[in-house]
Amino acid sequence: MSLHYDVDAVVLDIEGTTSATGFVVDVLYPYSRSRFAALLTERSENPEVARAVAQVREEIGEPDADAGRVEKALNAWLDEDRKATPLKTLQGLIWSEGFARGDLVSHFYDDVVPELRAWHAEGLRLYVYSSGSVAAQRAWFTNSPAGDLTPLVSGLYDTENAGPKQEAESYRRIASATGIAPDRLLFLSDRPGELDAAREAGWQAVGIRRPGEPYYEQGVGDHAAAGTFDEITISRSTS
């Protein structure tokens, strides 16, 4: 069954939606875990690293925490799969370098890239909104198995520049930044709480349900659902 939408832009979640959560958990998480220590000790003067470390110290209530203690906190958050902004910032730096070195190539489900290219060719604007940092998103789309996909994407949003993904205000912020009316934005995600927040902000939303993904059994509540991107047909009214 095909779902039909008349919108001007599509906003994409990554994990469980465009790409396999398993790849992130099994490949990217261990890669970052093995490199936190070096990043914290060798790059402590880097402004982005220093800001993230300060955020970790604030979060754990230890203003004098050393690199070892910060690393321990990061690893604990990783174990919990906690969407902590400083964790995502530091992971993004590590992953960006890993992609640039050729250590890493991102993952996209087979149905995703052809649809993104088709939607872009039809004049739709594409955005990404992920709990992973903007740096990680950029590296992900730059280093896909299908080549550099960043020319397809008009903007990247994360929990730092937009806000938490299960709060409607974050989606209002993105709508304002893009200059697109909320009801002309379509959000694709596998997480019902995110779909609820997008709808509360006036967006249209579709739940993506892929077998084997963490939220597959839970479902997407009362939202429309698609198993693959090619089940979604998008047209833009020219009036």
Gist?
By secondary structure, this protein is an alpha/beta fold. The chain is 44% helix and 15% strand.
Give the overall average pLDDT. Answer: 95
Q: Approximately what portion of the residues adopt beta-strand conformation?
A: 5-15%
What is the helix content?
40-55%
Helix/strand order: EEHHHHHHEHEHEHEEE
Give me the side-by-side strand order of the main sheet: 4-3-2-5-6-7
Uncertain runs: none
For the secondary structure, the number of strands is 8
Shape call: globular
C-alpha end-to-end distance: 27 Å
Output the number of helix runs: 9
Largest sheet: 6 strands, parallel
Structural class: alpha/beta
Q: What radius of gyration results from the CA coordinates?
A: 18 Å
Describe the structure.
The protein is an alpha/beta fold. Helices cover 44% and strands 15% of the residues. α9 (192-200) links the parallel β5 and β6. α2 (36-42) runs antiparallel to α4, α3 (47-60) runs antiparallel to α5 and α8 crosses α9 (192-200). The longest helix has 17 residues, at 85-101. It is globular, with a radius of gyration of 18 Å.
Identify the notable features of this structure and list them briefly.
239 residues; 6-stranded parallel β-sheet; two-stranded parallel ribbon
Give the helices and strands, then pairings:
Blueprint: E1 3-6, E2 9-12, H1 21-33, H2 36-42, H3 47-60, H4 67-80, H5 85-101, H6 112-121, E3 125-129, H7 134-142, E4 153-157, H8 168-178, E5 185-189, H9 192-200, E6 204-208, E7 224-226, E8 232-235
Parallel strand pairs: 1-8, 2-3, 2-5, 3-4, 5-6, 6-7
